[in-house]
Amino acid sequence: MTRKTRGYGESATTEERRTRRDSYSFPLFLRGGESLLLAVLVLAGAWTFALSAQAPAGDGPQYASGNNLVRPDNYREWIFLGSSLGLNYPQPGAAPGADQFNNVFVNPSSYRAFMQTGKWPDKTIWVLEFRGVGKEAVANRRGQFQTNLVGFEANVKDSRFPDGWGYFVFRDGEKSGAPLSGDTVKRCIDCHSAHTAVERTFVQFYPQLFDAAKKMGTVKKDYTDP
Ligand code: HEC
After folding, report:
1. Which atom of ligand 1 has the smallest separation from the CA of 190?
2. In CATH, which of 3.50.50.60, 3.50.70.20, 3.40.50.11030, 3.40.50.150 is domain 63-216?
3. Fewer CB atoms near the end CB (10 Å): N or C, the chain?
4. Closest Cα partner for 71 from 121, 127, 132?
């Protein structure tokens, strides 16, 4: 090939020169200013990556089809808002049910937004896990601890629903579920409207959120401690 017999740049075609520049000049011929620029770009890239690792986009609700919510399988890696034992509002006249532990989780990016604004962003999902109560495991016999999963509910704040909220109950082994409707959802909405401190959520039972909401002035005007 003729190239062998020519010196660099002597009689190369434009195409050859372009190829050569693309393959050889970077980063071999970087000068001071360009190296600094490169270093800044690399750092900026690393920083953006670190940020996106902290707040992965799309950690909100996922839907299987239509408004059917996918039961999140990684909620135990979300933010744990709190735990309660035997906390419920019994129906007037009804016998109290067996005590259960309730564990509440929320998707991480919505938690961070709430801590800054005292409000829930669109595309927030909460999981409420019910667990059985274990007793008499140690000598003093008073300690109580969590056992097997006995129930699983999820709420979402999502503008895809007519009033901006969706309520779900998942039974054993269900991978996705349709939003509750009719009288069933009415019960969820009534209690989650009448007794909640912020929007339709029981923020009064999650101390760090309650403090943030008080600071931001987002506690409902008509909310009074129970
Ligand atoms: C009679 C009152 C009442 C009704 C009805 C009710 N809840 Fe709740 N819910 C609560 C309370 C109290 C909490 C506070 C968390 C706890 O139990 O530790 C809560 C918390 C939750 C949470 C965690 C996020 C939050 O708002 O704090 C989810 C998810 C949830 N409920 C789903 C449901 C669904 C789905 C229904 C309807 C099937 C429902 N709830 C009906 C009282 C109620």
Report:
1. 5
2. 3.50.70.20
3. N
4. 127
Give pTM, 2 decimals: 0.78
215 Cα to the center of ligand 1, angstroms: 24
Using CB atoms within 10 A of its CB, is residue 7 exposed (0-12), middle (13-18) or buried (19+)? exposed
For ligand 1, say whether the CB of 189 is within 6 Å of any of its atoms. Answer: no
Specify the residue for token string 């408004």. Answer: 67
Tell which atom from ligand 1 comes closest to the C-alpha of 87: 17
Tokens at 192, concatenated: 């989650």
Residues of the chain falling short of pLDDT 50: 1-14, 16-29, 52-53, 55-56
The closest-lying atom of ligand 1 relative to the alpha carbon of residue 169 is 35
pLDDT reported for residue 103: 98
Task: For the chain, give every domain's residue range.
Answer: 2-54, 63-216
Which tens digits make up the pLDDT trace of 124-160? 999 999 999 999 888 888 899 999 999 999 999 999 9
pLDDT at 221: 96
pLDDT at 31: 57
Q: Give the pLDDT of residue 121.
A: 98
For ligand 1, say whether the CB of 154 is within 6 Å of any of its atoms: yes
What is the rounded CA–CA span in Å between residue 12 and residue 6? 8
Q: Where are the alpha helices (DSSP H) in 14-69?
A: 14-28, 32-54
Structure tokens at 29: 């011929």
